[in-house]
Amino acid sequence: xxxxxxxxxxxxxxxxxxxxxxxxxxxxxxxxxxxxxxxxxxxxxxxxxxxxxxxxxxxxxxxxxxxxxxxxxxxxxxxxxxxxxxxxxxxxxxxxxxxxxxxxxxxxxxxxxxxxxxxxxxxxxxxxxxxxxxxxxxxxxxxxxxxxxxxxxxxxxxxxxxxxxxxxxxxxxxxxxxxxxxxxxxxxxxx
Length: 191
Fold this sequence. Notes:
It contains 8 helices and 4 strands. The protein is mainly alpha-helical. A hairpin with a 4-residue loop joins strand 1 and strand 2.
């Protein structure tokens, strides 16, 4: 298991435990390990990550875990599209809505491949035109940078709480095209 996969598994178990309020049963643990590998591969293979900076990979991985939990609770029924959201418009663990989020792929293709849905989720985060974390989440949740929703706020808050626990800081950095992610230790105290 790679370091990134281990990190993602930590994020997945943390989100599951926080959301479900109990430790996952054994069968669910195996599914969570499988998802950690899928999400790790998606981050490693992504041509563009939603974050820049020294913690970009970890922040992107954590964001996948948080969104998959928030949107589908890591449910196999949601993952395989036996349950869909938004009156059938949103599919997969990432609840990818019809339109730009699907990147030209059909619901059938997305429902058949969690790897594809994770890649599309990462791509969708990168559609924001400004390097604002809040706007990036808005684009994902609503399709527009300036429109927020309860779901966007839930994702944003859950992600920031997890990032803080892992000592990851999300910034808007001058010159960066996307939100900047770095480890908190990179900011020594000013004396």
